[in-house]
Design brief:
single chain; mainly alpha; 5 helices
Length: 139
């Protein structure tokens, strides 16, 4: 099965389970308030971090550098804001982890290691390629 399909099916199941467990502990009304509060606070902090990232990116552009980290941070902050708006505790935890710069850097390092492993495997496959020229003798 496709990994994305499994994630799409798994996340709502985890969220429903967490709603039931936490709602049983603190009550339904308090659970709804916590979900709304995390959405508002998360989007506020995502906005603050986003403005900081934008400012840093503009500084990078003025110094004639490509703002790669800032672009990745902007994408991660957009994903974090989306995860915080979606009701749920698991998505809120992931969203807050993406907002915090330290954990965002850890996430980027994990992705870069994964990407470099794939890239080196692709380069190894290119080494097996034999290039040549041919000529059509029928003409």
């Amino acid at each position: 099965m496709n990994t994305l399909l499994l994630i799409i099916l798994f996340i709502p199941l985890v969220e429903i389970y967490l709603f039931i467990q936490i709602g049983g502990q603190i009550g339904a009304f308090n659970t709804i308030l916590v979900i709304l509060l995390t959405a508002v606070v998360g989007v506020y902090f995502a906005r603050l971090q986003g403005l900081s990232t934008l400012k840093s990116g503009i500084t990078q552009l003025y110094s004639n550098q490509i703002p790669v980290y800032e672009m990745m941070s902007g994408a991660a902050l957009t994903l974090a804001a989306l995860l915080l708006i979606i009701p749920g505790f698991a998505t809120d935890i992931i969203g807050f982890l993406l907002i915090i710069p330290v954990t965002r850097n850890i996430f980027f390092k994990f992705l870069s290691k994964k990407y470099t492993k794939q890239k080196s495997a692709n380069e190894k496959a290119k080494d097996d390629l034999i290039e040549g020229e041919y000529e059509d003798k029928d003409n």
